[in-house]
Every structure is written in structure tokens, then in C-alpha cells.
Write a structure and sequence with these properties.
Helix 6 packs across helix 7. The termini are far apart. Strands 1, 2, 3, 4, 5, 6, 7, 8, 9 and 12 form a 10-stranded mixed β-sheet that branches. The radius of gyration is 21 Å and the shape is globular. The protein is α/β, with parallel strands linked by helices. It has 2 domains: about 150 residues, 3-Layer(aba) Sandwich (D-Maltodextrin-Binding Protein, domain 2); about 110 residues, Periplasmic binding protein-like II (D-Maltodextrin-Binding Protein, domain 2).
């Protein structure tokens, strides 16, 4: 192979590599977002509209933020505002962009042995569960859902580290696994509404408490800082952000329903 041909082959290979990199990105998303089924709707549309392959990394919010801090993903989509704000303040993302919201709900046995259906607040509902000592499944994975649960126990002046494992089961797993465990144990569990509506193994469980404003659940998109991690695919992360906040994407999110019930409310600005 002469020098000119070799150069042409190498140049073509470099161009192909660069093109593949430009058309693919890694997005850390919460297991609750994935369990909702919305990603199955959005990913093909993203590919069709902007020719971008989005590789999802399914983790809890805490782990997603760690991946962002280490530069192992190009962007994150999570739901824990205080942690997101800190992430931006520390320079790991240039900004935080709200995309959509739903709410957290408390699920439990149809019989409702702790009578949380009569609770006035979410903190009151958890206090009733603790006093009844009926089984409660905690994700225990530093996810946005887990962090919300912990804050609620704090609001009821309790600390989970002191809870008896005979009724408080911390499983260190995602939303789908927590719901499956609660179904198998006939236990209480906190879930985001979307994961619950899309959950197929409900068994003897039902939604027993919702509506407390404290259970508001905002999802936000954070591109990872290229200043911190020069290798991240900032162009792809920006393209995805622009798409997620577009009228088309926001309508797709708002139109996504199960049995006629919307799973998310779009609110990008």
C-alpha cells in the first residue's frame, strides 16, 4: 500500500470514528424513569429526529451523579433537586434544565393494616407504618426515591438506621425490584407514580396515599461539564437537551399514558 493510499484509509477511519462518536452519547437515567416505559417511546423518536443513539445507563440518582462527577457519562436525567443544585454549584454541569414531573405515591396491601389511607400527610402515613410494624420495603440505593423516603422519615422524627429489620427491609435495588419485593412480601413501598402505573406484578397491592405537595417529583436534565471532562460529547448532550425541551418531545411526554392516565407532566422552559 503506497503512502497516499495509506493516508486515505487512515483518514477515512478517523472520520468514521469521529462520526460514530458524534452520533452516540451516554445518558445516566434513574431506574424509575426507565421503568415507566417512557424511554421506549422517546428513544426511537430521538434517533429518527436528530440521528442520535442514546445509550441509557440505568442507576439511582446518587450513582448517576457519581458517574457525572467522574465523566463516565455525557449527561444525566435525575430527580433530586438539592443534589442536582450541588452538582451544578460544584461545576460538574453548566446548568440544570427541568423536563417533566410527576409525584411519589405510597403503595401497600389492599387491607391497609397501617391505615395510611386515613393519613393527613406523607410523614403521617410513614409514622403509621412504623407504629404498625407492618413490612415496608425501602429501595436503600441512594436514589431520588430513596432520598425522598429518608426525608419523610426525618419529617416524622425517625431515623431509618434505628429501624428494626423485622419490618423495615432495605434492599439496595431499583424501583422495579422494590415493587416486586413489596408485591411478594405484601408490604408497603414508596414509588414514583409512573413506575407504579407501568408495574405489571401488582398482586395484592394498591395505591393508598398520594397528594401531599411534599411528594412532588421533578425530573431534570444536566449535561456534564466539558470544562471538568473535555472528553464528554457536549454536542450530543446539547442536541438531546434541545430535543427534550422542544414542543414535539414535550407533547410526546404529555401524551404518554397507561389506561388513560398520564405518567408525566411536561414542564420544560
Amino acid at each position: 500500500m503506497n503512502a497516499r493510499l495509506l493516508f486515505a484509509v487512515l483518514a477515512f477511519g478517523l472520520l468514521a470514528t469521529t462520526r460514530a462518536w458524534a452520533d452516540e452519547m451516554r445518558l445516566a437515567v434513574t431506574t424509575s424513569f426507565h421503568n415507566s416505559g417512557l424511554s421506549d417511546v422517546l428513544l426511537p423518536k430521538i434517533k429518527a429526529d436528530i440521528d442520535l443513539d442514546v445509550r441509557l445507563i440505568l442507576v439511582g440518582t446518587g450513582q448517576a451523579l457519581k458517574l457525572g462527577r467522574s465523566g463516565d457519562v455525557d449527561a444525566i436525567l435525575v430527580h433530586s433537586r438539592a443534589a442536582e443544585t450541588q452538582f451544578v454549584e460544584e461545576g460538574f454541569a453548566p446548568h440544570r434544565r427541568e423536563i417533566m414531573y410527576n409525584d411519589f405515591v405510597l403503595i401497600g396491601p389492599v387491607e391497609d393494616p397501617a391505615n395510611i389511607d386515613a393519613a393527613k400527610t406523607a410523614a403521617d402515613a410513614l409514622t403509621r407504618i412504623r407504629k404498625s410494624k407492618h413490612l415496608f420495603v425501602s429501595r436503600g440505593d441512594d436514589s431520588g426515591t430513596h432520598r425522598k423516603e429518608i426525608s419523610l422519615w426525618g419529617a416524622s422524627t425517625e431515623r431509618t438506621a434505628e429501624f428494626d429489620s423485622s419490618w423495615y427491609r432495605s434492599i439496595g435495588a431499583g424501583m422495579g425490584a422494590a415493587l416486586n419485593a413489596a408485591s411478594a412480601m405484601n408490604a408497603y413501598v414508596m414509588s414514583d407514580r409512573a413506575s407504579w402505573l407501568n408495574f405489571q406484578n401488582k398482586g395484592n397491592l394498591k395505591l393508598l396515599f398520594s397528594g401531599d405537595p411534599f411528594l412532588f417529583n421533578q425530573y431534570a436534565y444536566l449535561p456534564v461539564s466539558q470544562e471538568k471532562h473535555p472528553h464528554v460529547n457536549r454536542n450530543a448532550a446539547t442536541a438531546l437537551e434541545d430535543w427534550l425541551t422542544s414542543g414535539r418531545a414535550q407533547k410526546l411526554i404529555g401524551d404518554y399514558t397507561i389506561n388513560g392516565e398520564a405518567l408525566f407532566v411536561p414542564n420544560a422552559k
